[in-house]
Structure formats: structure tokens, C-alpha cells
Amino acid sequence: MKKPGSKLTLRAISLVLCIALFAPVPAHAGLGDLFAAIDSTISDLIGGTLTLITTVQTNIRSLYEEVVWPIGVINSTRTWSRNLVGHYRGWMALVYHLPIQSAQTMSPQKLEDTILSGSVGQLGQLGPAYNSTYGTLPTDQQAPLDLRQMMDMNDSLAQDALKQTVASDQANESLLKMADDMENNATLAPGTSSYVSASAYAATLQTLAYQHKLLAAQLREEGAHLAHQSADMKRDTQRTNDLHRSIFNILSTR
What is the mean pLDDT of residues 197-208? Predict the structure, then answer.
């Protein structure tokens, strides 16, 4: 794209050349005199005009580089941000990947490894490891139906919440990688900052969505806990009524 100043310069040169070429020349003047007149015109008129245009362009450039977008401050801020990233990125990587596994026996170790894997591809191993650690559901002959139902629901909600945490950890890894890529590409071409900002806002929305899913899992767990307490109270009430009926039947037969 040509600058307006360059167009103005070309028009001025063309106009002066036309004036010089079509200006009346004495009859006795030779070709050398014609070239001398053209050279004088270019040096005096066009040279002064070009100097003025160059001065205006230099002043405009200085205004942009020193006031509107000060290069020194921008480069200083860029250097500071890179130094900041270099200081905290390694430390944060160690924090994110701390070896927090604590289980000591085989089944809990398998369950813990699956929970902390951060990979939804390993969720198929969670159910067997969970049953090996906390036990399987009793059969019809081993426990009443109401107890089996409550145990089944508690186990289901517990596994659902654990699976949700694994999915959340995997999503967090993707977001962290996205953040690292943004920091690595801190030097942006003019006009691209809006796209990077839009990507950052989108990542923020994804983070909020994952947080809401985890909060929803916590609410489900709390709801199941209240439901379990209510079921225990209902069972106690039923047992009390059964005991009353048994005592009444015994007393009525005497």
C-alpha cells in the first residue's frame, strides 16, 4: 500500500517537470541550457518540497513512537513479562505435578493412580479399582433391598464425582498448555491482539464451565448425603412401627 505522502510527492514532481518542459526557452538556448533549467527546477522546487514532506513524516513517526505507542515502554514491558514468565513457570509446573500419591496397598494404589491420571481414557479402570477397594454390592440374600439400593446409589455418585475430577484434570492440562502457548507467542503482529484476547476470553469461559460442573458434582454429593440420612430415618421409623406391632401382638395373645 502506497502512503499518501508518496502520491503527493510524485504528483509534485510530475507537475514541476511539466512546467519545466513546457516553459518558454530562449531561441538561442541549447540542449544544455534546457537540462540546466530542469535541474535547477528539480533542485530548488522539488528538493524543498521533498524536504518538507520528509520533515512532516518524521514528526508524525516521532509522535507515534514516543507518545501514542512509545517503543521504549513497550519493549520494557515485553522484557518484564518474559522475565516474569521465566521466573514462575518452572515453579508452577512443579506445583501442578507434585507426586501426591499416598496409597500403600495394591487396590487403593490402582484407584489412586486412575483418579490422578488426568486422562479420561483410563476411566474404564476406575470401576474395578473402586470395587476392589470399597467392596462390591451385596447380593439379595446378603442384604435387604432398601440397603442395597442406598449402597448402589452411594457408590454410583462417588464414582461419578471421581470421574468428573479426572475429566476436569484433563481439561486443566489443555488450558495450561493453551496459556503457555499464549505466553510463548507474546510478540504479536499488529492487528492480531484482538484474536489472542478473544482466545483468552474463550479459555476463561471454559474454565468457568468446568468449575460449574465440579460445583454441580459437589451439590449432587450433598444431595445424596441428605437423601441417605432421610432413608435412615425412614428405616428407623419402619423398624419402630414393626416393633410396636410385634409387642402389641404379643400382649394381645395373653
Answer: 84
